[in-house]
């Protein structure tokens, strides 16, 4: 779809705002450092109306934190070509990109003395992914962390953040993608069933930079990942991939904001989720802003949800704000559905048992996204994890 193909009224009927900023614009979202500068939400706010506030309330109240390995432990791989260090609150590029938009992000910025800093230096190409194992050991004590991932000019690197165990965890992740560099970030939320995790991911892309940002949420009682990406210079590209599978009484929420603030940039967002069990809940909100100066933008966002059982609910809200008609294309799509009875009938008519037929449908639903992940061990892990989810519900 291109803007010139549609009238303003037609675009707005599709949920696309066209023109100058309004006070409801995503561009006006309040942001500030300092926990006390953010009120505890009531659930009536637009950005919190889908949230599982009861579950994450202890994090909203937290004004102290712990860095003890008895609560959350970090294990960082050694990979040749990537430097591992730390950054204090006033050391760039930490907190120069991320300005907290909520109380939990503000707490992670304020209460984390030293952020983990991983950097691929200028002109360094690192083929081996670097893994950070983040293991929660105590879900009764609030903990926070800050991570800064960086690729300097003409560098390339892949970072994997793997979250396991149990925790009450607030996390900020900043991604600094330098000019002509390429970064892949894979964040796995593979927590135990009782974990609470709220994360803020912020990326700034330089000229001709490329970012592949992958979020996978499978575990945890309540998980909320806010992702913001901003284009600062022309010619940059971002691909955002998300995969989630919600079970009984599990709440998985993903919110994205792509800020096209520079010309000739491309963004492509695809998130897919499956839900099963009473009280299973997923939320996906995708906001894209194309500013007046972002001529030549090409953007698309897609969310698909597959509801496997009664009692599960998926909310999907795509939004586009467009301030210029001089773009290559802008579109969005969202859908939530159940098993396709015709597909099942087709498979069963060829002698495939119903349970196996259902598994094939779900595998096919996720396979496109899994194949876009360039790390074989992650693809294998996701395939196995989806099989485990299906086995629990269908056996």
Structure description:
The protein is α/β, with parallel strands linked by helices. The chain has two domains: 3-339, no CATH class; 340-395, no CATH class. It is 17% helix and 43% strand. The protein has six helices and 17 strands. The chain has helices at residues 8-13, 53-61, 103-111, 341-348, 354-370, 376-394, and strands at residues 16-18, 72-76, 83-88, 114-120, 130-151, 156-177, 182-189, 196-205, 210-217, 222-231, 237-246, 251-260, 266-275, 281-290, 298-307, 313-322, 329-338. It has a 17-stranded mixed beta sheet that branches. Helix 4 packs across helix 5 (354-370). The radius of gyration is 21 Å and the shape is globular. The relative contact order is 0.11.
Report the total helices.
6
Output mean pLDDT: 89
Structural class category: alpha/beta
Q: Using only CA atoms, what is the Rg? A: 21 Å
Percent of residues in β-strands: 35-45%
The shape is globular
Largest sheet: 17 strands, mixed
- The tally of beta strands, per DSSP, is 17
Total discrete domains: 2
* N-end to C-end Cα span: 44 Å
Order of H and E elements: HEHEEHEEEEEEEEEEEEEEHHH
Low-confidence region ranges? 1-21
Protein name: Fe-S cluster assembly protein SufD
Pfam families: SUFBD_core
Family: Belongs to the iron-sulfur cluster assembly SufBD family.
Organism: Helcobacillus massiliensis
């Amino acid at each position: 779809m291109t803007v010139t193909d549609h009238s303003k009224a037609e675009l707005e009927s599709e949920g696309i705002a066209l023109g100058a900023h309004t006070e409801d614009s995503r561009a006006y979202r309040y942001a500030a450092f300092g926990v006390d500068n953010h009120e505890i939400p009531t659930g009536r706010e637009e950005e919190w109306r889908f949230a599982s506030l009861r579950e994450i309330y202890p994090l909203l109240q937290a004004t102290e934190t712990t860095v003890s390995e008895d609560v959350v432990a970090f294990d960082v791989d050694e990979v040749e070509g990537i430097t591992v260090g730390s950054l204090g609150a006033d050391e760039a590029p930490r907190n120069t990109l991320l300005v907290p938009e909520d109380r939990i992000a503000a707490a992670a910025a304020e209460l984390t003395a030293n952020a983990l800093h991983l950097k691929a230096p200028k002109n360094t190409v690192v083929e081996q992914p670097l893994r950070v194992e983040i293991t929660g050991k105590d879900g009764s004590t609030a903990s926070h962390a800050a991570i800064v991932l960086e690729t300097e000019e003409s560098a390339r690197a892949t970072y994997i953040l793997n979250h396991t165990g149990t925790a009450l965890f607030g996390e900020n992740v900043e991604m600094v993608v330098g000019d002509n560099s390429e970064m892949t970030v894979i964040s796995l939320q593979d927590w135990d069933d009782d974990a609470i995790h709220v994360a803020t991911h912020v990326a700034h892309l330089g000229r001709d930079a490329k970012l592949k940002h992958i979020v996978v949420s499978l575990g945890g009682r309540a998980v909320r990942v806010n992702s913001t990406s901003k284009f600062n210079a022309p010619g940059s590209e971002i691909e955002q991939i998300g995969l989630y599978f919600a079970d009984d009484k599990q709440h998985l929420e993903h919110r994205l904001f792509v800020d096209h603030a520079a010309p000739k940039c491309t963004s492509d967002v695809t998130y897919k989720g499956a839900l099963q069990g009473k009280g299973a809940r997923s939320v996906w909100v995708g906001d894209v802003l194309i500013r007046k100066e972002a001529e030549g933008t090409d953007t698309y966002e897609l969310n698909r949800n597959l509801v496997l059982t009664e009692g599960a609910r998926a909310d999907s809200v795509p939004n586009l704000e467009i301030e210029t008609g001089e773009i290559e294309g802008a579109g969005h799509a969202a859908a939530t559905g159940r098993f396709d009875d015709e597909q099942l009938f087709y498979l069963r008519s060829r002698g495939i048992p119903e349970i196996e037929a259902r598994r094939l449908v779900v595998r096919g639903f996720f396979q496109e996204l899994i194949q876009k992940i360039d790390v074989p061990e992650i693809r294998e892990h996701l395939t196995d994890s989806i099989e485990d989810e299906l086995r629990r519900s269908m056996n």
